[in-house]
């Protein structure tokens, strides 16, 4: 028997586990995750109102229904073991001792930092941490203050997710799987909200997908503006050179959508329609400095033609990408990696499937060439985990959580997420 450990049960971990399980009869595949629940960013990153995308979990969970795949939730692999309130801890060496092959599928969810004077001031939130909060991630304990004048730095889909969720009404959000306490916090001052989506590139450079722009423009009862008076009909040469050909059509669609948005005439700061939340796309503009004593009060911006503006804001969200956690895992033997932790934070969920299949084929080739089969896998690991107090979850525990969350949901909601560790522990222990 070959024992394979996969670290991470996001899309990459699930796709590779599924493929290996199908092709390697003589393998036991154990998928570890620090979270007590599987599916990585699909549960804790993808916007809670994108229910069709969330439903991809149905495809991902197939891996765990195979006889030779095991989900082991609530176990963090880390080079320097630490005490955590929500998971047990294993070192890379302990894994190596018990598994023949180790696959890293740990993602890349460390928020990239904005390098601005005063950037750590209260009221600024990186988009990854914000997404974990609005998804009810029970391993996070922050409660952001969401004000009325919100700057979002970044022109990608994660920035648009944040803008859309901040613009939606309570009735609209109640149909999502967003926890109630988050809906309350997000919608408190929603009708008076002014959101500025700030990016340093032109409209043609913006990384949004056209479907995401269209979705936000279709929201009823919001006012939408743009600062760029001259949106071109064609992609400019610098963009043509920079982005792959397969994205050209979508970028042209973006331009067509931007042209439909009215230009903001007059002062960016003062004009606002009565009683409607407003979204303004600001192009060709770089943030220079954050201002405020205790809490962010304004952001200084500079346009490409060197015009300077001080924009009053009470909340800043940075959505400028993700990178791998700076604390890397130290293995003594070669490992495989897959998905975002290998390729960086780019691409959609399905892109990880292609990468997982290719990586799995490399593993299968290596196994066919000869891998020693003298390790005992989970039996050895279980003895170590039994000495730690944390709750370790299995796939059947997840099914119990899933059922409980679906049953607890009110009519329009797909699920009412468990967002605290004590409730989750009580539920699992009651079923043991
Ligand atoms: C905010 C946000 C919204 C997104 N929305 C969409 C969308 O709408 N549509 C779309 O197609 N794509 C979306 N994406 C992209 C998509 O989520 C990624 O393509 C995908 O999740 C990457 O999969 P992964 O398995 O490589 O990483 P992840 O999904 O990040 O999974 C990594 C897993 O590894 C676990 N882990 C990490 N370190 C350890 C450790 N040391 N020990 C144990 N476990 C560990 C984590 O807990 C996690 O479960 C979004 C991404 C973000 C950040």
From TrEMBL:
Top-level taxon in the UniProt lineage: Bacteria
InterPro entries named among the record's database cross-references: FAD/NAD-bd_sf (IPR036188), Ferredox_Rdtase (IPR055275)
SUPFAM superfamilies: Nucleotide-binding domain
Keywords of the record: FAD, Flavoprotein, NADP, Oxidoreductase
Keyword Oxidoreductase: yes
Cofactor section: FAD
Protein name: FAD-dependent oxidoreductase
Source taxonomy: Bacteria, Pseudomonadati, Pseudomonadota, Gammaproteobacteria, Oceanospirillales
């Amino acid at each position: 028997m070959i024992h394979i450990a996969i670290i991470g049960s996001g899309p990459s971990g699930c796709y590779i586990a599924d493929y290996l399980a199908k092709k390697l009869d003589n393998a036991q595949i154990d998928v570890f995750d620090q979270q007590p629940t599987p599916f990585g960013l699909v549960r804790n990153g993808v916007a809670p109102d994108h229910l069709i995308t969330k439903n991809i979990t149905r495809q991902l969970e197939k891996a765990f229904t195979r006889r030779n795949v095991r989900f082991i939730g609530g176990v963090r692999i880390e080079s320097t073991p630490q005490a955590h309130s929500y998971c047990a801890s294993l070192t890379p060496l302990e894994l190596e001792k018990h598994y023949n092959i180790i696959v890293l599928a740990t993602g890349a969810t460390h928020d990239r930092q904005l390098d601005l004077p005063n950037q750590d001031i209260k009221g600024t939130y990186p988009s990854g941490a914000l997404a974990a909060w609005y998804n009810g991630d029970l391993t996070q304990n922050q409660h952001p203050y969401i004000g009325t004048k919100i700057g979002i730095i970044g022109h990608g889909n994660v920035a648009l997710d944040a803008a859309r969720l901040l613009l939606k009404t309570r009735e609209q959000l109640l149909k999502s799987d967003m926890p109630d306490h988050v809906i309350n916090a997000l919608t408190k001052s929603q009708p008076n909200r002014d959101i500025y989506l700030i990016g340093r590139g032109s409209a043609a450079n913006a990384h949004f997908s056209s479907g995401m722009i269209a979705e936000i423009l279709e929201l009823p009862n919001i006012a939408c503006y743009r600062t760029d008076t001259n949106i071109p009909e064609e992609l400019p040469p610098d963009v043509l050179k920079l982005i792959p050909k397969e994205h050209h059509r979508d970028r042209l669609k973006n331009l067509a959508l931007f042209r439909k948005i009215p230009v903001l005439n007059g002062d960016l700061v003062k004009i606002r329609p009565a009683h409607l939340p407003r979204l303004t796309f600001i192009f060709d503009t770089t943030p220079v400095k954050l201002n405020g004593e205790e809490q962010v009060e304004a952001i200084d911006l500079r346009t490409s033609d060197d015009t300077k503006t001080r924009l009053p804001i009470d909340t800043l969200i940075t959505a400028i990408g993700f990178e791998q956690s700076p604390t890397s895992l130290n293995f003594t033997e070669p490992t495989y990696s897959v998905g975002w932790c290998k390729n960086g934070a780019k691409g959609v969920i399905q892109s990880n499937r292609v990468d997982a299949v290719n990586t799995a084929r490399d593993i299968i080739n290596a196994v066919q060439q000869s891998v020693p089969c003298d390790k005992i896998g989970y039996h050895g690991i279980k003895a170590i985990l039994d000495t730690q107090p944390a709750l370790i979850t299995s796939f059947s525990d997840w099914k119990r959580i899933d059922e409980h969350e679906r049953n607890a949901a009110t009519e329009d909601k797909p699920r009412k997420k468990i967002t605290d560790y004590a409730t989750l522990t009580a539920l699992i222990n009651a079923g043991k």
